[in-house]
Design brief:
Layout: E1 26-30, E2 39-42, E3 48-51, H1 61-73, E4 79-83, H2 89-92, H3 95-101, E5 104-109, H4 122-133, E6 138-139, E7 145-148, E8 155-162, E9 165-166, E10 195-200, E11 203-207, H5 213-220, E12 231-233, H6 245-251, E13 255-258, H7 268-275, E14 282-287, E15 303-305, E16 317-321, E17 327-332, E18 339-342
Parallel strand pairs: 3-4, 4-5, 5-6, 11-12, 12-13, 13-14, 14-15
Antiparallel strand pairs: 1-2, 1-16, 2-3, 7-8, 8-9, 8-10, 10-11, 16-17, 17-18
Helix pairs in contact: 3-4
Amino acid sequence: MRQLMCVLCCLISANVALAGKEDQRLDLYFIDVEGGAATLIVTPAGESILIDSGYPDFGGRDLNRILHVLRDVAGLDALDHASVSHWHMDHYGNHAALAAQFPIHNFWDRGIPDTLREDKQFDERIANYRAATQNESKSVKAGDVFDLDSPKTPLKLTVVTASREVIANTGPPNPFAELHQPQDDDASDNAASVSLLFEFGKFRFLTCGDLTWNVEGQLVTPNNPLGRIELFMVTHHGLPVSNNPALVRAIEPLVAVTCNGPTKGGHPNTIATLRACDSLQALYQLHRNVNLSAEEQTPAEYIANNEPTENCAGVWVKASVDPQGNSFTVQIGPDGQLRTYQCR
């Protein structure tokens, strides 16, 4: 085990439930990076973890949205950890630029490949990441377990997939295993995504980057080593090459958040898979899919951003777990309705 160090406390504005050492809650922020991914986690001890960092360029759009949440919403002045789920630019595109403006103490990834055939500019882009990390990023593998500092309730982080490897297929039989119908092998780096499971009391959060269909199936068939998940970050922005129903149905999500964009992700096939889960109480989307009708996606009150890119305000979604891990709230932006969900 590697013990992650507690460094910071989190100060939150009055409109949002306080976090970190102030109230010993576990907070998760889903930052709008227009169909990329950037998720900030602040532990009850104030330890901060940013998973992925959205697209580069676009006038610093995604970078500035991340900095706003870090500084103005979460009240941080440094990041303890910045991790990369996989080597696509919508996931690690701002790590180097962020490190130039905001102190980052530790970098985590699955290991850096020599080449990436789907990205002809990989050599240049990874050079920026190497420079930002000073070639000292730490690599993770499936099965790694981290005990995070937490004053009242134990907080555990498990790496469940990385580099196309999965944790042991233990646990009860998956009653939805037959829903896994193998697809053509995915040679892209999506299939090598790092998937993380956070456990805090009864609360369990799963985020799988852009993990694709066959590796999802390998993870949960014939048995389910993940158990039930209270909060599920819908995989791969809600695209149907991911979100294998054998996995989604097996984890019985209570609440799901789709980090999609106006025209990327939030696919109706994935929404149908989620709606087939009897357990699901709410589906949040970072964006309205402008190509779908209202009936084909979650109700408008569960969508953070309804405008196309040119008019998008970049509103975030926040989940906040009580100090015992018995319940959690979800809200959209600082003034959104606070909805409470009881952990099972």
